[in-house]
Design goal:
Rossmann fold, 6 helices, about 30% helix
Amino acid sequence: MGTSAAKENILKRIRQALSNPVPLPFPQSEGSASVYQPAKDELEILFAEAFNQLQGKFAFCVDEADLLLQVQQLITQKEWTKIYCCEDRWNDSFSNTIHLPGCDASVTGCEYLVARTGTIVMSAAQQSGRTVSVYAPIHICIAYTNQLVYDIKDALQLLKDKYAGNIPSLITFASGPSRTADIEKTLVTGVHGPKEVYLFLVDSASATR
């Protein structure tokens, strides 16, 4: 089946355009400078404020002993009996089920925290993989202050440096619990992921990672 004259004309114009690309009209606008104002407060405070505004539950831990205490208190208070965790660092402390389906809550780490947007950055390269943070109805994330960055571009650059030449197949940006809204702007949480997200931030100065 031959190519129509109209289609051939379009393809010809595309080939010509590709061989003679149009220069950027404003080359100076493609710089690396951030369009946002520099951080005016400590990243821990900025993240906590943004995360809480997104309906996340934030807790600061002065050290890892405080982390263990606060997480266990939360589990006891909420009466969760099935906690899933597959990360070596916290598996012995929290996990009491080997099944992700049917668990009450899951515990994971993260790659970075974006302070400006209150976002948790995770990837498929972590031990928890792709599903743990989104499958359970409650997501408990543990992070350290040295994982805080100001903007998303900072997190992406660090991921690029960390996984040089082998970027994870999935990078997730989670900003609070899963939520959606209908045409009447009624907000519903927990539709496509966890209905509650808890972030425990540990002071890196007193933690051994």
